Amino acid sequence: MRDAEHETPHGETPYSPTSLLRALTANPYGVSTLRPQEHPAAEAAPPDNRYTRVLTLVIALLLGFTVAVSVLDLRADAASEDGPRAVLEQEVRDTRAEAEALEGRRAELEGEIAEAQGSVLERSEAGAADRLSAYESAGGSVALSGPGTVLVLDDSAPLPASPGVASGTVNRVTDGDVQVAVNGLWAAGAEGISVNGQRVVSSTAIRTAGSAVLVDFRPLSPPYRITALGDPEQLQDAVEEGETGEYLDEVSTRFGIRVSWEPGEELTVPARAAGTLREATALDGGSGTPAPETMPTGGAGTAPDEGAAASGAEEDSP
């Protein structure tokens, strides 16, 4: 007996030659659509009723409430006094306070060293104190005051939107800009220079790290105030008329870097931090002058003896 589940509407089995021939010659456009109750996904779809919709809504509300409570708890922990951010901020404040205390102690020790040095120089030869003062001024070890000018370099204002430039873009002052300005002031005859309170000497490094400009390995932030001691008008005119002035005009025109001058009658450039003494040599006698050379012992009587011997030889010779 044939299985009713595998019979075709015409009574053949699905694998009989007649059934295969009928399938090959059948009109593909004559296939009737499935009835709703025969659709494959009809049995898998859940019943659409009010109870199911209410249950789904309640579950969604519970999940949303749980997520909101978790987020609020995390924010409360982060804002609490024991949170990681608060701990880091406290460590930064403690480190800054410790650094300020050490800086004050360093200043006190430098004052004591200067007093001891002055007392020693008073007992030294004449002119030693003046020479030391000149050396310290050249090396930036002492603060200098007098008339001068301040060259201010600042980032550009937020730029408007333009092709290739987003609205609000700011062009930053680079370490190269500061280097050019400092070198121009030296060439103009500046007697002393500092950048944002950092003394600049021949061995000072001006570099960049990320978006910060480092002067003597200390990060600075804009605006960069370059203080130069000397004749204010002469310094400004020499800079503006030279290559430095052309460079500053170009960066100001092309990139919007703000450049300004502030002359002053009483400006100060601070002293550079004292370096670490690694080697010292004591002078002979402690007077600061080399000991006079002495003649070798017996050197003065050698020539007469030789002369006498020579004359005696001459007398003995026939």
TrEMBL record:
It comes from the Bacteria. The chain crosses the membrane at residues 54-72. Residues 303-312 have a biased composition (Low complexity). Residues 85-119 form a coiled coil. GO terms for cellular component: plasma membrane. Pfam families: DUF881. It comes from Brachybacterium saurashtrense. This is DUF881 domain-containing protein. Keywords: Coiled coil, Membrane, Transmembrane, Transmembrane helix. Residues 277-318 are annotated as: Disordered. The keyword Nuclease does not apply. Belongs to the UPF0749 family. The keyword Coiled coil applies.
